[in-house]
Amino acid sequence: MLTIVGELINTSRAAVKEAVLNKDEAYIRELASKQAKSGATYIDVNCGNMINIEEETMKWLVNIVQDEVDIPLCIDSPDAEVLDVGLSLCKNGRPMINSISDEDERYAAVLPLIKKYNAKVVVLCMDSTGMPNTSEDRMKVVRNLHAKLSKEGIADEDMYFDPLVKPVSSVATAGAEVLNTVKKIKEDFPDVHFMCGLSNISYGLPNRSILNRLFVVQTMTVGMDGYVLDPTNTKMMAGIIASTATLGMDSYCGKYIKAHRKGLLN
Amino acid sequence: MATLNDVSQCVLDGELDEVKALVQQLIDAGIDPITIINDGLIAGMNIVAPLFKSGEMFVPEVMESADTMNEGMKLLKPLITDGDIPSKGKIIIGTVNGDLHDIGKNLLIMMMESRGYTVVDLGVDIKEEAFVAAVKEHKPDIVGMSSLLTTTMMKMDSTIKQLTKEGLRDQIKIIIGGAPITQEFAEDIGADGYSEDASTAVELCDRMMTA
């Protein structure tokens, strides 16, 4: 089962910021509902750039989104207090936190929230020394984080490791490193999940959509099972649905055929 | 016989393997090293910058061009002394604490260097204290900060506050950039300038240095 986190409710997108400032509830409802209808399994809520009003904005957004859709939320903030406020309002099933890492301050601030709200958590493969370059270095960070979180009683199934996708335009091996990292995590910790924002792979290159679509298929093939993306991008979703079928994760090809009937594969 | 124009073209095309031979030919022919740098290598990068800005060239191509320029520079640097190329000004630049994105920063560094600035690259994930220490050590004209995440952009604010607290704010100009950054945000946190891409950032620095 794939986890698709719909990324559209983010105030770093100009239209969303405007909707927040104008208290345009209808626009937010529409964004939530069309993402859910398009196959999102979580709705991400991020208002990290609303300086001084992030907390009240988070409350406003969470309440509207939950009033509109039934799927759970992914609460996304640099500020642990804002995470706390957002999580405290979540009632559509177990929420997800975006994100924890092994950076000392972040780890200490987010860990109690995972427990307090019995939340799932996106785990960034980085620590206080920065972002590891090779998959072996990333594995060191992964092993540390997994050991620490396990000791705190967090279940493997609730950890969503984000291998941190860098653009191939600047680091030629960035895509290959992610694939290797996912394979290695799968070997060592078969029950954990994954999360990645994959559009970073194509930054700086023309015709980004084909790179993004192919990278979804490539990462799914090695076991990646979670993505933060725009689920209303029908071509992207068609690739994911087809890939799910060819990888044997779609019983009787049911979802594939259903998507065909809805006209989603054209 | 190679010409300065061939060297520019070589940089533009990112012909890493050929640049050294071309530059060596010009050196052997007695062309002034400064002329080779300015009218050959840098002239090539000066064609690259606007093509990147207009979307005709892409990130890996710009990097290949910059690497090509640097390959040529390796042959020329030993032939000149430090004072031969006057610096337009000194900038220290880094990606803020918690953020590891460096493409935009690195592009800016390449363009600033090819425009005659002295650049000190602090790297990524740079804490407030590290910016402060670097300002004290290098005494730059301009401090550049990059942030690509909504989760780290407020570090620009805390860095500026820290610089102010240390009494360093008045000695420098501060420019910021990165995907979530806007002119409005720059004004909110008291930065001196914002630009949306590397090429316009160079123009912004030019304006600051002549102001």
Automatic annotation (TrEMBL), chain B:
Pfam families: B12-binding, B12-binding_2
Protein name from the UniProt record: Methyltransferase
Span of domain B12-binding: 88-211
Molecular function (Gene Ontology), one example: methionine synthase activity
Keyword presence, Metal-binding: yes
GO process annotations (BP): homocysteine metabolic process; methylation; tetrahydrofolate metabolic process
Domain of life: Bacteria
Family from the record: Belongs to the methylamine corrinoid protein family.
CDD domains per the UniProt record, alphabetical: corrinoid_protein_B12-BD
Record-annotated membrane-spanning stretches: none
Gene3D superfamilies, sorted: Cobalamin-binding domain, Methionine synthase domain
Cellular component terms per the entry's GO annotation: cytosol
Keywords linked to the UniProt accession: Cobalt, Metal-binding, Methyltransferase, Transferase
Species, as recorded: Acetobacterium bakii
Domain spans labelled B12-binding N-terminal: 1-88
